[in-house]
Amino acid sequence: MMQNIVGPFDVPNSSEPESSGTFISAKTLASNLAIKSSSNRDLQFALQQFNQGRFKIAEFYLKKTLVKSPDNPTAIKLLPWTYFYQKHYDKALTAFRRSKVLYRKNSESSIGMGWCYFGLRNYERAIEQFEYAEKLSGDHYQINKGKGFAQLKMNRKPQAEEDFSKIYNSSQINIILNLWASWHEKDADPLIDILPTSAKSLSLFTLPIESPRYPSLLLGLIRDVDPSTNHAWKAFWKGKFKKALNEFKDISYIFGISPSTILPSKTSSLPFLTLAVNSPDAKNGLAWSHLKNKEIKEASILFKEILQIWPNFIGAIQGINEIENIKRRQTRYADHYLDINKLGIAEKKYEEIQSRYPNWDYPYTQLGKLKLEQKDYLYARDYFLDALDLAPNDPEAKAGINEVRKVIDSNLFQADQALES
Q1: Cα separation values, 297 from 214, 311, 326, Å
Q2: Cα gap 114→156, rounded to integer Å
Q3: For residue 55, which of 73, 93, 75, 81 has the smallest C-alpha distance?
Q4: What's 265's DSSP letter?
């Protein structure tokens, strides 16, 4: 429909106010902007929920986004992954097909379809999709991994080994084949989980040989395609941890992933900065490189930052657990002296550990126990309270507080116990 535009030399229609066309245009523009703003809010919330692992909520808000903005590319590409991570492989296939039609050069849709067909036990179709992604120069790792496991499911071991040899060394292939054999000991055709059910469960996306990077768990996220990230991870895999650390540090100056760092103003406008919150890959590599170089404080900060955005990312969870194990090993002498009642030596060693790791609750709890042994109840209470400030659910610190209350406030403690029982 032609729109009437009133120019400076036009005579306005007497039956229509002069500003009518301008007013209608402004009103339409304002309405469109409001819809766009609302759609953007829905999309940002969906992305946040996706990162948090709340895929059902992410699905809902992506659909809301598509109602308001049917051609939004981010929503179209991400929606099938919300189905996939809920293990709704049939729904995911339908959504991937739509994405594939609209974005024919996007190889990730074909990779997603390949894994969906694998989940639906249609292994021939899975291989077809992985090969289609290969023609589009898609993710070399995911393509050969998917093809390899589909070949194994069809008892084509030589072909599987050929595919795996493109991404794994001989030792890693042997680990996969041994794992595969163990899965098939009691069932000739077991249902193998593509996705993990917990941080400790085994699945095709959490193979031991993929720790701590877990590249398959990054599918659906906007990832850093810069080859320097893969290069840094290769140095890490080879045990060249100092080299890996330096390479990840170089990446951090471009992508803004170093802990609590303010980047120079000349880099602050780079679009790359968005990748720091779209994928944990490079940040996880930097954290693990710090850890392997015995820089525990720096690694801990990075792992915690990752888990604030991606609380279920297994690479960071394992990093936190590894740090906890390292610190626990460092307390074994202090624990030993506490156990044999050499309290003076134990206290000195716990204080050294406390100074080294001021944000760790364990030495505070142990010092609280030590003060209980010395019947220094007020100091014991202070240490237990400090531990609870750092870890509000620490059961040993809570038990320690109760032990203190039994002595210094026994009547009130007994009354509270009676109310709870």
Answers
A1: 23, 19, 12
A2: 17
A3: 81
A4: G
- Is 21-210 a domain of CATH 3.60.21.10? no
DSSP assignment, residue 297? Answer: H
CA atoms within 13 A on the CB side of 375: 1
Q: Domain limits of the chain?
A: 21-210, 227-327, 334-420
Tens-digit pLDDT profile for residues 284-337: 999 999 999 999 999 999 999 999 999 999 999 999 999 999 999 999 999 999
**Residue 233 and residue 287: Cα distance in Å, rounded?**
12
Rounded Cα distance, 14 and 412, in Å:
87
- Looking at domain 227-327, what is its CATH homologous superfamily? Tetratricopeptide repeat domain (1.25.40.10)
CA distance 310 to 303: 10
pTM, entire model: 0.81
Structure-block tokens of residue 166: 């493109």
Burial class (CB in 10 A: 0-12, 13-18, 19+), 86: middle
C-alpha to C-alpha distances, 356 to 28, 289, 331, 353, nearest whole angstrom: 61, 20, 11, 5
CATH code of 334-420, in short, is: 1.25.40.10
Chain centre distance of CA 320: 13
Cβ–Cβ < 8 Å for 96, 120: no
Q: Which residues are CB-contacts of 296 (< 8 A; sequence separation ≥ 6)?
A: 290, 323, 326, 327, 357
CA 418-420-421 angle, to 5 degrees, is 65
